[in-house]
Design a protein that fits this description.
The structure is a homodimer. Chain A is mainly alpha-helical. The first copy, chain A, has helices spanning about 15-35, 50-60, 65-80, 85-105, 125, 130-145, 155-170, 175-185, 190-215, 220-250, 250-255, 260-265, 270-295, 305-315; strands at about 40, 45, 115, 120. The two termini of chain A are about 35 Å apart. Chain A has a single domain, classed as Farnesyl Diphosphate Synthase, CATH 1.10.600.10. Chain A is globular and about 55 Å long. In chain A, strands 1-2 form a two-stranded antiparallel ribbon. In chain A, strands 3-4 form a two-stranded antiparallel ribbon. Helices cover about 70% and strands about 5% of the residues of chain A. Chains A and B meet through strand 1, strand 2, helix 2, helix 4 and helix 6 of A and strand 1, strand 2, helix 2, helix 4 and helix 6 of B.
């Protein structure tokens, strides 16, 4: 760890190359772990049809923001890692599985009833509703399975902490709780603080959880952990603000999903609440908060985290 | 641990009193842990509407067979416990949450479309489909949250092992996998071995998992663990055979759910495959296998496990 003033500005960091190398590792791990060969327990194989739906929903799609946050936080705390350790790679894949399952269930007819996701038919359109329901359920379980390998590749205490963090980020005081508030809010006018609370749970909890899980794999100092939590909270919120902005400014082809959907569904968004210009300014404020938190982390090299924050806020889709 | 010949016959064991004391502990724990007060993370409270649906699906209903198996296995291995330790109580509640979530999702219109469960309207009838979907999702996450308390009440390595066992029992090579086979099998003729494989996953994995998780809380010998796995496999299968029998022999009021449903839905069952009499004989065979396994466990007192096996096979609903 080095003093604050030595932190390097994100602009000098080649995010593309960093991302490419990590994505390569993550994609290969997901491909390997979500397969009928890998998914056996006590001689019972997972049914191929279920594994197909799980693979469809996870592989070959998505920006993998959450895994990248896990790995960036891990590397920042570790201070020397060029590759993810086993725990961090498993954590990276586990948060992506939770994200993927939430999309599968969220797209279902009883929720958002969306037919297009990442430019492909959604899982229930492709495989039927019952299979989508089960695939989502199985993906959530698989996330915890990935975090708990047998053998000694990952310390038991770390496994337990990762499971605890993931469960809380995904559950009723995290992602699922945020979805429930979202559901109840359709057609209602929310205050800015209510909207923020909803998004802190719905999107923020898992994004922040990703950062904290990655850090946990490298045994962070209390100072670093606190700063990374602040960083995670800021980008978690920023992500949703930008999502709301893109929902009205981008087209479906760019987004890979149906644009204008939230407004059509009379869902409260930052844009509907504070207008487009104030929403954009708020996103930039949150980016500044995230960068500030990194400066207070006491960590020597937070360039990947800084660049990811920038990417979250200034993305076009 | 004592030699085999000292094992006491189940008939001398007062199961009712044993069950009552354990249920009291489990019910109070569930009541305490599934509440808006308990379900907070980093200052974020779970939304009341979601917690209501979760409580509705878990509290005040069900035989709690899985928690009882956890506690009976724990006590058998521990050899002296009169009360569940913190880990065993959490494990007991976690398997019930997984069971409850599976019922909520299984009852949904895109799956079994059932409107009655434990004599009450199913969750989607009471709260709407979207809320049922989310409540199920949140219950699964909460199961892992219960297994990973902060502080030192439960050893980290035990937390990790319990999470791993639960994830595998619930996931695609366990319960969710069995559901997927079930789904694909409607209207198809299954062989006896295919039907067995389906039920070993769908119902057996979590029942067996309950036994193994309970044992794990008390650090079993390899001999005891292997025997308890065999016991769990036998009662897991027996449970489903009896379920199929009751589906054709009991009425809806006794079952607390719609009777004759599987036959109406053209689902393969043991009764449709082997007839009623052979199904009943098979259930008794499996009971004998379970009791035999206990005799080979090397454990001194397996009376509660033996009595629970008897209850599973000879139940009327």
């Amino acid at each position: 760890m080095m003093a604050e003033e030595t932190a390097v500005a994100p602009s000098t960091f080649a995010l593309d190359g960093w991302v490419r190398a990590r994505l390569d590792q993550v994609e290969r791990a997901l491909e390997r772990w979500i397969s009928a060969d890998a998914l056996q327990d006590s001689g019972h194989a997972a049914p191929v049809a279920l594994v197909d739906a799980m693979r469809y929903s996870v592989l070959d799609g998505g920006k993998r923001l959450r895994p990248l946050l896990v790995l960036a936080a891990y590397e920042a705390v570790d201070g020397g890692a060029q590759r993810a350790c086993e725990a961090a790679l498993r954590a990276a894949c586990s948060v992506e599985l939770i994200h993927a399952y939430s999309l599968v269930h969220d797209d279902m007819p009883c929720m958002d009833n969306d037919v297009l996701r990442r430019g492909k038919p959604t899982v229930h359109v492709q495989f039927g509703e019952a299979s989508a329901l089960l695939a989502g359920d199985a993906l959530q379980a698989l996330a915890f399975e990935l975090l708990t390998p047998s053998g000694d590749a990952v310390d038991g205490a770390v496994q337990a902490r990762l499971c605890g963090l993931l469960a809380r980020a995904a559950g009723c005081s995290g992602m699922a709780g945020g979805q429930a508030i979202d559901l109840a809010s359709v057609g209602h006018q929310l205050s800015e603080s209510e909207l923020r609370e909803m998004h802190q749970l719905k999107t923020g909890a898992l994004l922040q959880g990703s950062v904290v899980m990655g850090a946990t794999c490298a045994h962070p100092s209390p100072q670093a952990l606190a700063a990374l939590k602040d960083y995670g909270a800021a980008i978690g919120l920023a992500f949703q603000v930008v999502d709301d902005i893109l929902d009205v400014t981008a087209d479906s082809a760019t987004l890979g999903k149906t644009a204008g959907k939230d407004a059509d569904n009379d869902k409260p968004t930052y844009v509907s609440l504070m207008g487009l210009d104030r929403s954009k300014a708020y996103a930039q404020d949150l980016l500044a908060q995230a960068q500030q938190a990194l400066l207070h982390s006491g960590l020597a090299d937070t360039r990947a985290l800084a660049a990811l924050a920038d990417m979250v806020v200034n993305r076009a889709h």
